[in-house]
Amino acid sequence: MLFAAASIMAVFMGIAAVFVRQKAAKRPLTMAKIIIPPVMMSTGALMYIFPYFRLTPFEIMEATVMGLLFSIVLILTTRYVEKGGELYVKQSRMFPVILVVLLALRIIMKTILSMSISPGEIGGMFFLLAFVMIVIWRLSMFIHLQAFKKQQINEARPRS
To answer: What is the pLDDT of residue 1?
Structure first.
């Protein structure tokens, strides 16, 4: 019952993420918009204070590697567009599809892992997976924004 409720909640959170991303695509990319989400999400790491959520080194490695792999998908599908001297994240038609696939993978992985790992450890693993994925993706966004700003500075310099 709890597993079904958590899965349904994940679907609703995914739907909310689609709407949030669509709204965010209408505003230019800034350092604050890149940095704030991972910083706010990092407070979730306080769960590891409690032994119920603590992970073994192998579980940490698994979650980190999966987060890295999922972040590659996000990085490869994120497109940027320049409008009026500002950098925007272009809305992708694939984003909802990717999100549904990631949610399905999450549910499948959770089902398989729940046979041998406690719910607390699974929660800890999925938090770590999501955090690694978001941090790496946001780092990629930061690099794109810095390159864009550098390009603007170089283009603004008078040619001699």
So the answer is: 64
- CB of 67 closer than 8 Å to CB of 129: yes
User: Contact 74/141 with Cβ under 8 angstroms?
Assistant: no
> Could you tell me the two tokens for 69?
């792999």
CA 142, distance to chain mean position in Å, is: 14
Does 124 score more than 70 pLDDT? yes
- Count how many domains the chain has: 1
pTM of the model: 0.82
Inter-residue contact 38 to 135 (CB < 8 Å): yes
- Minimal CA–CA distance to 66: which of 105, 11, 99, 112? 105
Rg (CA), the chain: 18
What is the pLDDT confidence band of residue 104, given thresholds at 50, 70 and 90? confident
Helix, coil or strand: residue 148: helix
The per-residue pLDDT for 73 is 87
> What mean pLDDT do residues 50-59 have?
94
Q: Which residues pair with 153 in a beta bridge?
A: none
Contact by Cβ (8 Å): 54, 48: yes
Residue 117's domain comprises 2-156
Identify the DSSP state of 28. Answer: -
Token pair for residue 31?
A: 């350092």
Cα 146 to chain centroid distance, Å, stands at 20
